[in-house]
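2 proteins. here.
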Amino acid sequence: MTATKIYGHRGCMGTYPENTLLGFQKAIEQGVDGLELDVQLTKDGEVVVIHDEILDRTTDGNGYIKDFTLQEVKQFSAGVNFAHFPHYDETSWKAERVPTLQEVLELLAPYNTELNIELKTYLINYEGIEEKLDKDAEIAWLLDQRISHPLDYIQSLDLEALHISKHVALSDAYYLKDLFEIIRVWTVNEKDEIKQLLDLNHYSTVVKENHLSKKIIGFTLFIGIVILLVFYISGGREVEPMIADFPKIIAHRGANDRFNESTISAYKIAAEDGVDALEIDLRMTEDGSLVAMHDNSIDRTTNGTGEVSNFALKEIKDIPTIDVFSNQSTVEEIPTLKEILDTFTDTEHYYIETRLVNDALAMEELLVQQLNEYDLLAKDLVTIQSFSQESLERIHELAPEVPLTLLFGKGKFNLKEAKMADYPFIGMEASDVTLKNVNELHRHGKEVHVFFNDLESEKKEQERVKLLNVDGYFTNDIRFTKELLQVE
């Protein structure tokens, strides 16, 4: 057996700009066995080292790599977007550029450092990129799910190794029992996860404060996102950011692209699609009933007019929602919250938005009461969101255990307020989502959930914010979001 090897994921990306010569040099100085990097192809056929298919997240440029020549790519800084990192030096980091693979190889020439190159070809087919690499290079298969008979695949495809996600590795040790010599696990950052992986082959592992002792075991750990090797090798302080294991898909007013928004049918379609949560906007009628309705009036979604709070429930029920899909008119009544809960009970997670009623607190007590009638709070099946901190504070008084989301309207996002808010989730409009905002909120232990006001640009915006590692999508197109996130 060979010793466990540690690869710097995109260099030293927890503390230095990812996939840069500076980051690779720092990882080498910290004693990694190898470097992991990603390559894309420029318009003029040059192999450059960058993870994303676009420049937006990691440079001060924007657009697809494939649409730029190397000279054009070199105009953009690969360091300025990481100004929030503690070691940031404006002069030197601003000068960092997206490196070519050739430049990285020249950097590595004096060192006995292994190199793991990921071809980023699953979104864009870079014709001829394989020919740019050494034909004698070893090949590994990158996997985020189990495969049957892995040894057969290794033999038939002439693979040197399998690169499997930590979730696969940690979920089934028996599955790995014959594979320890030929697996590499990505991406591992937490102390406990590293210890579990080192213990999988039941060889003892010694972990001392600020030092990782490598013992006999036959797999490789890719370490990099957020804390990289800072705790284990350099003695830096440990960081515990909030990043969801996988982004949440939240059905915004149900499957509103296929049926009238905020109706039982729209929520049924969303539930059948397998979303993580049903998003429900609440309004209160004149006689104190909670109904699912986004707007304060019924004008947009029905043939009626007037504010919801001026109608009794019986009157609201006589004015159905109306919309048109596939050139056919669809009609369905406005549902109460209780009718939605009766329909789905405890089979779904509910992401509910509260609002003030005529500028006053009114719905919070009734909401908590109805949720408790279905035992949903005790089962952790509810998240409550609001633009009103007053409403969230009242909910917290009534149900301290329920997770809360503070919402910011388009153009009104306040990073300082969001970081200081005592809520685990922050909701913001897509146009306000930037790398700085996401990273800062993650560093303060908060998830970022994004909603999309502009339906025409939503798909493009979903693709953009995916690259910024947001944690939740209030989607108006469930099927597109599932495909984007590669969810079955």
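next one coming up
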Amino acid sequence: MKFMNFPKNKKNKSHPNRSLFAKITFILAITLIIFSNLSNSTNAENYYLYDQLEMQLNLSGEIELIETDDNAYVKEIKTTINLYPETNPRQELVDLQTEGEVINSSSIQFIWDDQKIETKQFSYSSDIKTVYTRNEISEKIDFPILNLNQLEVYELENLELYLQETNIIDWSDSTIIAQANELAEGKDDLFVVAFNLASWVEENVEYNLNSITAESSQSSSWVLENKEGVCDEMTSLFIAMCRSLGIPARFVTGMTYTESELFDSNWQAHGWAEVYFPDHGWVSFDPTFGEYGYIDATHIKLRHSLDPSEPSSLYEWTAQFIDLESSSLDMDIYFKNVGNKISAEFSIETEVLEEESSFGSYNLVKAILKNENEFYSASTLTLSIPEEIEIVGNNKNTVLLQPKETKELFWIIKIPENLDPDYKYTYPYTIYTEKNVSVHSYLYSVVNAPSYTYDNIKELTVPEEEDNSYSRKMELECNYSEHVMINKINNVSCKISNKGNTKLDYINVCISDSCEIIEELPISQSISINQNLSFQEPGWKNILVEVNNDDLTKSDYLNFEVLDESNINLSYKLSNNISYKENFMITLKISPDSYNIPQNLTINLDQIRKETTWEIEELNENQEIIIELSSQGLSSENIFQVTIKWQDQLENSHELKEEITILVTGESTYDKIVLYFNGILNYFYT
């Protein structure tokens, strides 16, 4: 995450490390199973998860008076610190200890009139209590904001001040206006617009602590062009886009807690925004932390301003032949007490398109997120999955939900290609929110399972700009046989049910390339559509089913494993020049000759006077059976019979028979006589 610096007190701030990581352990058995230790990499306390924090904040600094002439004289020194932890709806200043004077509940002033030319030190110590709370906006607030001057304001401030342009927040830049308009076009809900602007900044501006952005704030147009910055620049760009749309927004300077390895200390300076919502006042948005409509309890507000360039400290002196040098402000913050862990505000479920897919296949992981609150709530969901799995795009997904709303979020993933076909792979995954609400599940990969291309998966995802919540009120359920024979007619029956509270009109239902219009589907009613399908090639086939009208879209893939006639190739090899009384070898070569894998095989070798039987559970690759036999008891010409019985994947029975002719020669007259009489005896056995 990205963080800012104070104009005078240059410290940087980072997002706490809240990511999950996968630790993979391989276990070889009948299958290869991949387990993952998916856990938060945090220390003993995740302070941002608490509903209340009590802290002590100490600020100190000093100024040095330097004589430039023997006649140096000082009458008065005045220092104004504009970083003051005033009480507000989510923050209480419990106690303040200082020799300075609080001015207008927004700053502390220190005055020295002792006329001493020396180093002057100043400080304050404060006890602060912060709470985690979301601004409870339970109804739509119209956008754009009209008649701003006529609005009742909670605070005695001129809202138009926070629509002004500055050197940093140069919102009249054409690229800023164009980007803000693109994100707000067609929207009439103020919270939705503010969310779109903030989440776009978080997703598209890269945090970069380079010398350009770390030492001084860059303009919003520069940040938009270069797509990089620290937290003050990310926030300034967000504010610039708000103001370009007529939305009052102001810059907040403060401190917050981090566990990021980018910084030497946990507490760092930070900047975020407050956006004005009519009838609700100022609402916090932190595009750096991905907190929209709220900030966590580790945020300590110290001031708000037009932009980040306003100084955190001012120095004035009445003197002669005196220069003044100021040090950086030092801040130390200590936790004194913590409240309770935040209760879950969302519930999460997860599904995958195909629980078991083939090597190299794409797949779709879905999160079903429900807002349990009676007000607007935004959340960022992160997918954590073993690194062998490729996530197409970002592993984070940020979403805004209206009161009690449920939405679906998607991640496209890809299974590795070069896996061992002898094993089945198990991949655990976790989806979690920034407040550590999580759900865990598994997906699997095995050879000859269903396979999807990227385009297949893309057809199933609802574009982000569409409201897919209504689609959850329409249910699609298809009944069909998953395993079918080649060139056979197979019936698919899909039932469409209206689970919402609105009649559905002119629904287009397509099964493969065949489409049908349902003119109306009343509330709580269902209708079934039937379609016959046949396939000419074996293997897994994906048939797309789409249901849509002007208000909704629903789609799914039906997976068919098309099977051909199960078949086996049998060949054999014999030892050369078999002589009587000598041992000889028979090698049976058995191989599958169809997509439909032979199963539960019984191989029987009838050797005239005895039989030998072998069993194979599944013939998915070539097999060799090598038998060593004695020629005693054989005649000069012998017929062995090989019989193979098996079932196919539909449990149909099959049989294959093959005769093997074995010639035996006698070296002596006695051997030839024995071979002759063996032939007579063997005749009666057969």
